[in-house]
Design a protein that fits this description.
This protein is of the alpha/beta class. Helix content is about 40%, strand content about 25%.
């Protein structure tokens, strides 16, 4: 036995063989203890994290087929974009500086009816995946049309996604009305449910001003029958709240509560205008809320009461919304702006600390969308969705507090490597599963065509 202990070859033979080790000068676990490990590593086998700890311990226990260097790098969970319309990257900048209603009704809805088809959605979602992977986003919740095509792109690009089939009571790119769009949604969810480890098909009723109460209730009934979550715009603008009051005699959240809409997993995007009573409803009904600060500022929708919702125990994540109202998919920007906006809105620099904001983009964000058991932190047994951040840029010098730097300094250009479900999607800042030149050329050609035809609308 003593000879074996002294024999390096015997020690090596005792190590378990695994797929991947990711090293880092810092491992920001985002676990319940907010543990940060210096000179650490994450061990991955078959898409699952099997160990997290100091590199010397990981190296003693495992030998990997591949190891990612950790020099001047930080390892953390991948970012979770809780609300997006991915294919709208192709409508980026098409209409700006407008109110939400004018932007939707006079520009976006007409443009979508004219240009959006499966190939538009395929290309736009590929462009979005490129942008999100480049920026360290590993999971996104999407709501758009031609959901089958979106799922196919997610499969090929390697990301994790909740893909919503949009339900809306107007002529849209893939349906004529609510009845047809709901049938399409049921068909999509039934086909994809449980069939893919990274893709969760869900229902995406648009809002309470594009669907009436019976149509919203029918969507929830269909979701309950299939055991599927719902993602929806809720209390985004004063128009929506006033619409609910005029038509239902109560606020937007209260209207949804009155029809038992929260009788299943619900991801509510925006939530800018809930009342105090409605915030308590959100907490009691375990509604996940997604904060979209840049989009809400750009459309002057308002400032969501994030601090109050957190105080009441609501799980709050962060989202970019679509690139047509943001106009990018940069989660680092959302974290920084979102945190600072709450401070100035409350006139209190102590609210929404960097640690809380980072949690909203990782661990709490996973909770808000119902994936807290599988992603959002670096812990044994969870899926291996993680990223490496380079710390060698001048804006990271000096580094006193890595959490502070991640929220107030880091940007998408600092992301070095991206791993989803144990597969490397980006290495050394280069996405590996997206044909960038093809996407670039196709997007430029389509944009030229859109710009010409928009003048005719």
């Amino acid at each position: 036995m003593s000879l074996c202990l002294l024999n390096p070859e015997a020690i090596a033979e005792d190590r378990s063989s695994i797929d991947l080790i990711i090293k880092g000068d810092y491992i920001v676990t985002m676990n319940d203890a907010d543990q940060i490990i210096r000179q650490g590593a994450v061990a991955v086998e078959s898409g699952t994290i099997v160990a997290v700890g100091p590199f010397v311990d990981i190296d003693r226990r495992y030998r990997a087929k591949e190891t990612l260097s950790g020099e001047e790098r930080l390892v953390m969970p991948g970012l979770i974009n809780g609300h997006s319309h991915a294919a709208m990257t192709l409508l980026r900048g098409i209409a700006d500086d407008l109110s939400l209603n004018e932007w939707l009704n006079d520009y976006i809805f007409p443009a979508e009816r004219t240009f959006v088809d499966p190939e538009f959605v395929r290309l736009g979602t590929e462009l979005a995946c490129w942008e999100m992977v480049r920026g360290g986003t590993t999971t996104f919740v999407d709501m758009y049309y031609h959901s089958e095509t979106i799922a196919e792109v997610v499969d090929s690009c390697g990301m994790r996604a909740f893909v919503s089939a949009t339900v809306i009571d107007q002529k849209s790119p893939d349906a004529n009305d609510a009845e047809e769009s709901l049938k399409n949604a049921v068909r999509f969810v039934t086909k994809w449910q449980g069939k893919h480890p990274r893709i969760t098909p869900i229902f995406g009723p648009h809002a309470n001003y594009t669907l009436n109460a019976s149509q919203l209730r029918a969507t929830r009934d269909a979701a309950k029958k299939l055991g599927a979550p719902i993602s929806i715009h809720m209390a985004e603008s004063m128009f929506e709240v006033e619409y609910a009051r005029d038509n239902y005699g109560m606020g937007s959240v209260s209207m949804f509560e009155s029809i038992d809409f929260f009788d299943g997993p619900t991801i509510a995007a925006h939530m800018v205008w809930p009342s105090e009573q409605e915030i308590r409803i959100l907490a009691e009904r375990n509604v996940g809320v997604i904060y979209n600060p840049t989009s809400n500022m750009k459309t002057a929708a308002g400032v969501a009461p994030i601090v109050r919702m957190l105080e009441e125990g609501v799980a709050v994540g962060i989202g970019t919304d679509g690139a047509a109202s943001n106009n990018d998919l940069d989660m680092w920007e959302e974290m920084r702006i979102g945190g600072l906006l709450q401070k100035v809105n409350r006139m209190d620099p102590k609210v929404l600390t960097a640690k809380t904001v980072l949690s909203m983009a990782t661990r709490m964000g996973a909770d808000a969308i119902g994936l807290a058991d599988s992603i959002g932190s670096l812990e044994s047994g969870k899926r291996a969705d993680l990223i490496q951040i380079m710390l060698d840029d001048v804006h990271h010098l000096p580094t006193y507090d890595v959490i502070s730097h991640l929220v107030y300094v880091t940007d998408e250009q600092d992301v070095d490597s991206v791993i989803v479900d144990g597969s490397i999607l980006m290495r050394d800042g280069r996405p590996l599963r997206i044909d960038r030149e093809r996407v670039r050329q196709a997007a430029a050609a389509l944009a030229q065509n859109i710009q010409i035809k928009m003048k005719e609308l």
